[in-house]
């Protein structure tokens, strides 16, 4: 397994060891011991899977407010995504900066996103299955987000007219969201 460091201190891009042969491949999708050795020490309590039919489906940008913030370990079981994270930690030198990474069934790459980030992705091919572990349970009351095309954040998405959920079409702008991340006030 190889761990690549990113612009953000504790965000990690992980390339698992893939054993390929004439049948296909084998990989350890998750190994607690190995992942702890690279400094990911949170306890994952929930595994999520989403399936997106169309390329250009965009889910995000999402986060749960404190005290129900979530760290995420994101991977792709089928297809490919452009995975985007935004640093919402007020004290961070990279506050409000974003980065995007391609995760796919071919590169096997996983992204570890600590608590304090907004997360979203856009599918690059049809029939994409994303799997991610989270270290806090889902809480509808703490569910929050930022509009995907927020002008302040200037994210370069690979699509200009994405397929969005009704909820994601109505997410607030970052100017109204970041102030609410730590105090649990709710995004308006
Ligand atoms: C996230 C989540 C949703 N749900 C429910 C709520 C809703 O009825 C339905 C679909 O939820 P959403 O539309 O929020 O699903 P989705 O847009 O795929 O939300 C996900 O997006 C990515 C980018 C993330 O980072 C995740 O944390 C999560 O926010 O599933 C759960 O039951 N448990 C969960 O953990």
From TrEMBL:
EC class name: isomerase
GO cellular component, one term: cytosol
Keywords assigned: Isomerase
CDD domains linked to this entry: cupin_RmlC
Entry's Gene Ontology molecular function annotations: dTDP-4-dehydrorhamnose 3,5-epimerase activity
Domain of life: Bacteria
GO biological process, one term: polysaccharide biosynthetic process
Matching Gene3D superfamilies: Jelly Rolls
Pathway membership, UniProt: Carbohydrate biosynthesis; dTDP-L-rhamnose biosynthesis
Catalytic residues (UniProt): 62 (proton acceptor), 132 (proton donor)
Pfam families: dTDP_sugar_isom
Reaction it catalyzes: dTDP-4-dehydro-6-deoxy-alpha-D-glucose = dTDP-4-dehydro-beta-L-rhamnose
Complex formation: Homodimer.
NCBIfam families with a match to the protein in the record: rmlC
Function: Catalyzes the epimerization of the C3' and C5'positions of dTDP-6-deoxy-D-xylo-4-hexulose, forming dTDP-6-deoxy-L-lyxo-4-hexulose.
Record-stated family: Belongs to the dTDP-4-dehydrorhamnose 3,5-epimerase family.
Name of protein: dTDP-4-dehydrorhamnose 3,5-epimerase
Originating species: Priestia taiwanensis
């Amino acid at each position: 397994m190889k761990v690549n460091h990113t612009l953000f201190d504790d965000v990690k891009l992980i390339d698992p060891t893939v054993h390929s042969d004439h049948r296909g491949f084998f990989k350890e999708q998750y190994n607690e011991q190995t992942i702890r050795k690279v400094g990911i020490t949170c306890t994952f309590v929930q595994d999520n899977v989403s399936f997106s039919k169309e390329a250009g489906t965009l889910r995000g940008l999402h986060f749960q407010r404190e005290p129900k913030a979530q760290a995420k370990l994101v991977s792709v079981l089928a297809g490919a995504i452009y995975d985007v994270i935004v640093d919402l930690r007020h004290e961070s030198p990279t506050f409000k900066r974003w980065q995007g990474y391609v995760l796919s069934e071919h590169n096997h790459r996983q992204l570890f996103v600590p608590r304090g980030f907004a997360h979203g992705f856009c599918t690059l091919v049809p029939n994409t299955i994303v799997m991610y572990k989270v270290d806090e349970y889902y809480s509808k009351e703490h569910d929050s987000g930022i509009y995907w095309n927020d002008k302040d954040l200037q994210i370069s998405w690979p699509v200009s007219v994405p397929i969005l959920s009704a909820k994601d079409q109505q997410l607030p702008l970052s100017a109204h969201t970041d102030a609410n991340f730590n105090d649990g006030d709710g995004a308006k």
